């Protein structure tokens, strides 16, 4: 079953300008990962330090494999940009509603 993940990020004020370049590099790896159906970045219209990364995955297993990769060989320095820990929400697609 398809899975949508929302990664709610709050950046440090001094990281706002440099974040797009780092995210572009990080998300290239996300988009290329097996099972990734797409990634969009949503920017808060009123708070430039707030963004949501919307990831779509073919399955929960594909997303879990991705998270495992990111915690090891695919680790990034995204944490250095964040003012607080990200909030992660996962949603299954309801095909019967």
From TrEMBL:
Span of domain ABM: 3-91
Keywords, ordered alphabetically: Monooxygenase, Oxidoreductase
Protein name, entry field: Antibiotic biosynthesis monooxygenase
Gene3D superfamilies, per database record: 3.30.70.100
N-terminal signal peptide: none
Gene Ontology MF annotations: monooxygenase activity
Keyword match Oxidoreductase: yes
Entry superkingdom: Bacteria
InterPro entries given in the database record: ABM_dom, Dimeric_a/b-barrel
SUPFAM superfamilies for the chain: Dimeric alpha+beta barrel
UniProt cross-references to PROSITE patterns, sorted A to Z: ABM
């Amino acid at each position: 079953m398809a899975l949508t993940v929302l990664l709610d990020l709050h950046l440090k004020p001094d990281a706002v300008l440099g974040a797009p370049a780092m995210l572009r590099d990080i998300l290239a790896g996300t988009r290329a990962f097996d099972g990734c159906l797409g990634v969009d970045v949503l920017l808060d219209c009123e708070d430039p330090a707030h963004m949501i990364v919307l990831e779509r995955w073919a399955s929960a297993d594909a997303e879990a494999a991705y998270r495992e990769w990111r915690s090891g060989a695919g680790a990034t320095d995204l944490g250095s940009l964040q003012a607080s820990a990200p909030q992660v929400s996962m949603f299954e697609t309801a095909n019967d509603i």
